[in-house]
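Our consortium's second objective concerns turning raw sequence data into structural hypotheses that experimental partners can test. To show how far this objective has progressed, the report includes one record in full. It was chosen at random from the queue rather than selected for favorable results. The single chain below, 95 residues long, was entered without modification.
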Amino acid sequence: MRSSLPLRSSILMDHVAKEWRGRWNALESLTMFCFCGTSVVGGYLVEAYGYRYCFFVTSVVWFVGLSVELVLVPIIRNERTLRKATTSHKLVMLA
């Protein structure tokens, strides 16, 4: 299930600035811990409410996560453009 983790981590680190890579790795470790910890929560939900409720809660959590990622995509694209414009502006000011 987590077989894509090395590839995803490599792609993530390619797109993260060097000074931010440590923070992103820490966040990635936190998500892996949450992934392992949710097994206990899922077991409790299945015992208390049944499988349907557990799948419903899982789909809501995944939908919220997907929504957040979709909102961040345009921001990341604009950030790269702004970074290039700011860098060229600084070079003009130094000259």
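The partners drew two points from this record. The first helix runs from residue 5 to 15. The two ends are 53 Å apart (CA to CA). Both points have been shared with the crystallography group to help prioritize constructs.
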